[in-house]
Specification:
- By secondary structure, the protein is α/β, with parallel strands linked by helices.
- It has a single domain, classed as Aldolase class I (TIM Barrel, Alpha-Beta Barrel).
- The chain has 11 helices and 14 strands.
- The two termini are 35 Å apart.
- It binds S-adenosylmethionine (SAM) and iron/sulfur cluster.
Length: 356
């Protein structure tokens, strides 16, 4: 078989492994059949967004019916059930979480849980467009870290990639977030044909401001009107290219998340690589995701979900909790998407529909 071109990932599909019949007793109520303890919830507060990134959603996306979206009160109750079952970290996401009306009320309630020790950490992933408005309130509410998605420092390229976004608003948001004392990490999607031109500037920019930069391989999630095979660039390939200009050293640092880190000697900063296509990282996965409609997904790379909304809306916390625990038993061993020369094996829903 001929070698794949460097931009395409060999899927190296995971052999199907049957889960053990009994879960190990780890003392964590949310332990899956492989013994992985789930302590981390990514909670989407909306599937709406004020941008239309070309790798994330279609130019005219179909959003969830409004009446399906959980209220702020329901989101807070649901988060409370997860916290009562061992979840220690919550990341709010979307869509764009800061476009959700009432989101600050939710953040204040969950921030209080950080204050009284029920949560270790509350974080947020945002596109940064409204960070300028909210940064001080986020810090006051107990958020210490935010991830800001930023794929280009060129205003025209940013405008094109986001289908209409304005870079200066995001840069202002970054200034205000740092001024408010928030730790900011920049996330950039490694979009082929773009990241090669942008990456050096992003490294200098992020590290010059004391921020980590993490690059993420494009994942085949949802229809965006673009062929994933032309969007995908292997980070193994990009790393080799970076190594011709930068002195990179692998770091042992591993957060609970999927990133591997490099030190860039010239800047002293950290560069994270998230490589779901080139390398698997599922064996330590400690997270689940809940959509804004209350659907529980135990894996980003599988379509299977369980709807928690009926039990939650019926005011039945015990039934909701029982559903969560049952669903956890079905958490797959790993994701199953891939991008090859011939096809992209993906998932129907977008990242924005579930929460990145
Ligand atoms: N709107 C917020 C933002 O952009 O940060 C939060 C939601 S967004 C869906 C979360 C993250 O998912 C962003 O960093 C975005 O770049 C990333 N993302 C979206 N679609 C993706 C895809 N198909 N492959 C890889 N990353 C993707
Ligand atoms: Fe919106 Fe974030 Fe998706 Fe971009 S990546 S369209 S900002 S949800």
């Amino acid at each position: 078989m001929s070698a794949l071109p460097p931009r395409l990932a060999d899927p190296a599909r995971r052999p199907a492994t049957a889960p053990p019949t009994t879960a190990p007793d780890t003392g964590c109520p949310l332990t899956d059949a492989f013994g992985r303890q789930v302590r981390y919830l990514r909670l989407s507060v909306t599937d709406r967004c004020d941008l239309r990134c070309v790798y994330c959603m279609a130019a005219r996306p179909v959003f969830m019916p409004r009446d399906q979206i959980l209220t702020i009160e329901e989101l807070a109750r649901l988060a409370g059930i997860f916290m009562a079952n061992g979840v220690r970290r919550i990341r709010l996401t979307g869509g764009e979480p800061l476009v959700r009306r009432g989101v600050m009320t939710l953040i204040e309630r969950l921030g209080a849980a950080v204050g009284d020790g029920r949560l270790d950490e509350l974080t947020l992933t945002t596109n940064g467009t409204r960070l300028g408005v909210h940064a001080a309130d986020l810090a006051a509410a107990g958020i210490r870290r935010v991830n800001v998605s930023l794929d280009s420092l060129n205003p025209d390229t940013f405008h094109r990639l986001t289908r209409g976004g304005r870079l200066d608003g995001v840069l202002d948001g970054l200034d205000r977030a740092q001024a408010a004392g928030l730790h900011v990490k920049i996330n950039a999607v490694a979009l082929a044909g773009v990241i090669e031109r942008e990456v050096d500037g992003l490294i200098r920019f992020a590290h010059g401001r004391g921020m980590d930069l993490t690059l993420i391989e494009v994942m085949p999630l949802g229809e965006t009107g673009h062929d994933r095979r032309t969007q995908f660039l292997s980070l193994d390939h990009l790393r080799d290219d970076l190594a011709t200009r930068w002195t990179l050293t692998s770091l042992p640092d591993r957060t609970a998340g999927p990133a591997r880190y490099l030190r860039v000697a010239e800047t002293g900063g950290r560069l994270g690589l998230i490589t779901p296509l080139s390398h698997r990282f599922c064996e330590h996965c400690d997270r689940v995701r809940v959509s804004a409609a209350g659907r529980l997904y135990t894996c980003l790379g599988h379509d299977g979900a369980v709807d928690l909304a009926p039990a939650l809306r019926a005011g039945a916390p015990d039934a909701t909790e029982a559903l969560i625990r049952q669903t956890l038993r079905l958490k797959p061993q790993g994701h199953d998407f891939a991008i090859t020369r011939d096809a992209a094996h993906g998932i129907g829903r977008t990242m924005a529909a579930l929460g990145g």
